[in-house]
Design brief:
Blueprint: H1 12-21, H2 30-36, H3 46-66, H4 73-76, H5 80-89, H6 94-108, H7 145-154, H8 158-161, E1 169-171, H9 172-185, H10 193-205, E2 213-217, E3 226-229, H11 235-243, H12 261-276, E4 287-288, E5 294-295, E6 299-301, E7 310-312, H13 313-323, H14 328-334
Antiparallel strand pairs: 1-2, 2-3, 4-5, 6-7
Length: about 350
Amino acid sequence: MGYKNKKYSKSLHQQMYDTLVGMQAFGESRREAKKNGTDRNKIFSFKTFQVYKEHCQYFIRFIKSNHPECKNLRQARKYIREWLQTRVDQGLSAWTISTEMSALSKLYGIHPGDPDYFTCPKRCRENIKRSRDGGKRRFSEKNNAELVAFCKSCGTRRSELLKLKGKDLITIEYITKEAHRLTELSKYRALSKSESADLRLYKDAMLFTGSQYFINIRRSKGGRDRISPLIGPDIDRVVTRFREIAPDEKVWLSVSSNADIHHYRSDYCTKLYRMIARPIENIPYNRTSRSGKRYQGDVVFCRRDERGRKLDRNALLLCSKALGHNRISVVSEHYLRGI
């Protein structure tokens, strides 16, 4: 029988880490957990776990420096508001502070309405600075013209870019053929979960009329798959690069950390929207309000600093599918520029 040292106690860092590890539910369905009411005590993404752990560590360091008398998480809880206020005073963005509040809320099980819940600064679109400068970094677009052209043609994320292989370029002919095959197969037996997902992706891709080449992106953010069309004047250049690579070899072995991939992703989205969006005046009045007045149900009216701008809802939905978000609000608020 082992000897237990009664003087031993876990550090604040260890207590925090053990608590977050106990919430890990990687691979489980968040939707089902929400239905059961158990989602508040679980972390479903490894990336979320990493982010929350990082921000909780910042809080623990603050406690050890300013309140060394705290020996456990329960004693440190009362200093959450003080910590977050110091972050506000430091000039951190509203998004960063909101992330830190989410991390601590998960760690302590704090919900809106609790006394310890901190009201974060309001997040405004005009205050977003990242990827808004058009690439004012130590990165030469001239020397990396092929990379820039590639990103603006397919709109991939940085992580997706580094995973692309030669076999991930597909044509509209292949998509049409596979969609027909799966449709016919469904008449004889129930499709598997993966087959149903592929059929849905192929049908979504066929909505991009006029596009000949697509990028097949697997297991991206949130474990989602998608098929994105190649657009722009550099399609042939991108296709050539894919065809020069062996099917199982990576298209890009490395990408400069100074390359503003998200900015090129925004350029891709804006260009794609302009290609497929209908003129607002041509969108039919297909809805009727309670007062009997007809209106354009497929027109999205922007708000706040974008008030007065009108967008095609169907085009936004297609852009969101191409980007891997499936939410039109993300496209209209964070990607479209100069529309």
